[in-house]
Write a structure and sequence with these properties.
The chain is α+β, with helices and mostly antiparallel strands. The radius of gyration is 21 Å and the shape is globular. A 5-stranded antiparallel β-sheet has the order 6-7-12-10-11. 26% of the residues lie in helices and 27% in strands. The model has no long low-confidence stretch (mean pLDDT 95). It folds into 3 domains: 68 residues, Uridine Diphospho-n-acetylenolpyruvylglucosamine Reductase, domain 2 (2-Layer Sandwich); 113 residues, Uridine Diphospho-n-acetylenolpyruvylglucosamine Reductase, domain 3 (2-Layer Sandwich); 104 residues, Alpha-Beta Complex (Uridine Diphospho-n-acetylenolpyruvylglucosamine Reductase, domain 1). The chain is built from 9 helices and 20 strands. Strand 8 and strand 9 form a beta hairpin. Bound molecules: uridine-diphosphate-2(N-acetylglucosaminyl) butyric acid.
Length: 345
């Protein structure tokens, strides 16, 4: 339980280098670590920091820091995880926003509650997962979401949001839009449907099924496959600084796509239910010759062109310069504007 006698954990002029997965240097004007909902309310009620602009930080795995943050950075470290209830059609699991996402995925599987295995090894915290509606290998957070609790940073009031209120989109939610910087997610509840149905439609997983001759993997096997696929093509942020996919996969009209396919028949693309077409940004960047290239100390990962990396000591400005150069060359060749996925500060 929060103890009112313990003062809030407030650090002035705090380094954020350890708090962003790119490992970029920047200072926070003030860093406040919150361990409970009550701590968040104490930030709201704080005579000085309560009224200052806020930036909410989870695992720091989806941000690019290009300068010092002249705001109160609220680092969410609220822990705890439990089975809230077991229904005939689902397990409802609740976790504190500060829990590491991957540890939650592994723990639910160990407990015998499958459903999150396709989302294994995604860096970041539980509270950050709904913000950008994390997704991988055919499953998005929105597909397993029940509800979340958040504290309003103006009123200090706790609110519960269901999926509709979160306005999930592709790597998007209300927390990247209208509620950005305005409310702190404290707890997330997930709905893991019963009976468990594997999601195996993604090309890389189909490949694993044929390689291993196992067309009916259990959840643990899917988890192991996803971990192996990710380790083979995505850099571990603990070793090489990065923020996962740097750009969203662009969605174009069928006409635009036909035009591009006419010129580049190899282009990797996926038809969407509404008739539009999603293009693989990694393919576009790769086709422009960027894989393995660098600008200063920022580079394009050798095994996945959609991931920009810190080759050691890079600044946020170098990452952004590299990103702009990539955007320009993709626009020049394909007429498509790539949109960054992480939040650029
Ligand atoms: N490709 C290339 N060259 C590259 C990279 C990719 O030709 O350098 C081609 C691949 O061969 C493949 C296609 O592009 O045919 C798509 O690549 P991949 O399967 O690796 O997936 P992605 O579209 O690059 C998306 C997500 C990832 C997620 C994977 C798996 C986005 C922006 N990214 O990547 O999410 O793990 O699918 O579902 O939607 C993240 O958001 O940080 C992230 C890593």
């Amino acid at each position: 339980m929060p103890n009112a006698a313990v003062p809030l954990d407030i650090q002035p002029r705090a380094s954020l280098r350890e708090h962003n997965s790119f490992g970029l240097p920047a200072l926070a004007r003030t860093l406040i670590r919150v361990h409970s909902e009550a701590d968040v309310r104490r930030v709201v009620d704080h005579p000085q920091h309560g009224v200052a602009p806020k930036f909410i930080l989870g695992g720091g795995s989806n941000i690019v820091l290009t300068r010092d943050v002249e705001a109160v950075v609220v680092k969410v470290e609220i822990g705890g995880r439990r089975l809230l209830r077991e229904q005939a059609d689902a397990w409802i699991v609740e976790a504190g926003a500060g829990e590491p996402w991957h540890a939650l995925v592994a723990w639910t599987l160990e407990q015998g509650w499958p459903g999150l295995e396709n989302l294994a090894l995604i860096p970041g915290s539980v509270g950050a997962a709904p913000v950008q509606n994390i997704g991988a290998y055919g499953v998005e957070l929105a597909d397993r979401f029940h509800s979340l609790d958040a504290v309003d940073l103006v009123t200090g009031r706790s609110v519960t949001l269901d999926a509709a209120m979160c306005r999930f989109g592709y790597r998007d939610s209300v927390f990247k839009q209208a509620l950005a910087g305005k409310s702190v997610i404290t707890r997330v509840r997930l709905r893991l449907p019963r009976p468990w149905q594997p999601v195996l439609g993604y090309l890389d997983l189909e490949r694993k099924m044929s390689e291993t001759g196992n067309p009916r993997p259990d959840a643990r096997t899917v988890f192991d496959w996803v971990c192996a696929i990710r380790r083979a093509k995505l850099p571990d942020p603990a070793v090489i600084g990065n923020a996962g996919s740097f750009f969203k996969n662009p969605v174009v009209s069928p006409e635009q796509c036909r035009d591009i396919i006419g010129r580049d028949p190899e282009i990797v693309h996926y038809p969407m239910p509404d008739g539009s077409v999603k293009l693989a940004a990694g393919w576009l960047i790769d086709a422009c010759g960027w894989k393995g290239k660098s600008v200063g100390r920022a580079g394009v990962y050798e095994r996945q062109a959609l991931v920009l990396v810190n080759r050691g000591g890079a600044s946020g400005a170098e990452v952004v310069t590299l990103a702009r150069a990539i955007q320009e060359s993709v626009y020049g060749r394909f007429g498509i504007r790539l949109e960054p996925e992480p939040i650029i500060l």
